[in-house]
Amino acid sequence: MIRLCALSKAFRRVGGAVQILRGVSFTLPDHSGVAVLGRNGAGKSTLLRLIAGSLAPDSGFVERRGSVSWPMGFAGGFHPALTGAQNVRFVARIHGLDPQSLSTFVESYAELGTAYWQRVETYSTGMRARLAFAASIGIDFDMYLVDEIIGVGDDAFRRKCQRSFRQRLRSARLLMVSHNRQMLREFCQAALLLEKGQVFWFPNLEDGFDHLDTVLGLRPAEEA
């Protein structure tokens, strides 16, 4: 269960503060797959980081019941001066897992070769994404947070990621951010729309897309 309790978050930018969330209180309904929608800059990735606990709110709090992944696709939690293997072992200890077992899985799954034993600061963006995905999928979370990650790597690696993810979602839940609507349709049934600091719930994914198109000006308001 994920519950947002009077949650607020703003960022200071040139020209003033941008309010991402404005005192939002919301309990996420029990759906297996939920797409997080919104215009660019609406705060989709920020919301995932707040839910994960990797970003602190300005006020309010997030109540979590069950284990929640970090945002898959966000590799900022890895220490750049440590190797991929050292980072994975650290993650395993945080989650109370056997470091050697998780490291062996990630080394094989991520297909980084000798780079797995090199410092993360030497990795390309794609290599960091592979490491982040492999580490996430190697842990049996109750909820996965996904931020534009399922499409990383070459075709064969993407297919492997998607197969693994489908298998995990037989018993877990999902919050997904992606600009790829086909990908969202494959994994999600419902939607959260972020707009002007508030969240709006749509139990039907296509209704969420329709309202997003209205927000983006791609669909006349009178047709919404």
CATH superfamily of the largest domain: P-loop containing nucleotide triphosphate hydrolases
Q: Given the structure, what is the number of helices?
A: 7
Which term fits the overall shape?
globular
CATH architecture of the largest domain: 3-Layer(aba) Sandwich
- Counting DSSP E segments of at least 2 residues, the number of strands comes to 9
Structural class: alpha/beta
Q: What composes the largest sheet? A: 6 strands, mixed
Taking the alpha carbons of the first and last residues, their distance comes to 30 Å
Order of helices and strands: EEEHEEHHHEHEHEEH
* Computed CA radius of gyration, to the nearest angstrom: 18 Å
Strand numbers in spatial order across the main sheet:
5-6-7-3-8-9
**What is the helix fraction of residues, given as a range?**
25-40%
How many structural domains does the protein architecture include? Answer: 2
**CATH topology tier name of the largest domain:** Rossmann fold
What percent strand?
25-35%
User: Poorly predicted ranges (pLDDT <50, ≥5 residues)?
Assistant: none
> In CATH, what is the class of the largest domain?
Alpha Beta
Q: What is the mean predicted local confidence, pLDDT?
A: 89
